[in-house]
Amino acid sequence: METMLIAKQRMLVMRLRGEIDHHTAGGIRKQLERELKMSGAVNIALDFKEVTFMDSSGIGVIIGRYKTVRALGGSMVIYNASEQIRRLLDMSGIRRIAVICSTLSEGLNIINSGKAIR
Questions:
Q1: 13: part of which helix (H) or strand (E)?
Q2: 3-state class of 116 per DSSP?
Q3: SS3 labels along 33-91
Q4: pLDDT value at position 116?
Q5: What residues of the chain score a pLDDT lower than 70?
Q6: Is it true that domain 2-113 has CATH number 3.30.750.24?
């Protein structure tokens, strides 16, 4: 996992890799929480380009971090997800709480336009 901060948007960006399941979800959750506290970010963007598999544990990580950023007045962006992951996100209702798009810039535009889900 790699993280970076886009200071202007107060956005923490995390690039995820491999499988997001019950073995890896706890580590992702802990790292996101730690980075959010240290950075002062209120928005999260998750890059799913290199995610090969995700189960309900991954959905739980997303929902939990959404609750955190929502309490801070922020938004969540998920981008670069494969078609298989997008279907899972749609079936689980994540689209109602997060911006799901193709690129980070598309997500930033949505957040900056005020059309993001909060």
A1: strand 11-20
A2: coil
A3: HHHHHHHCCCEEEEEEEEEEEECHHHHHHHHHHHHHHHHCCCCEEEECCCHHHHHHHHH
A4: 63
A5: 1, 115-118
A6: yes
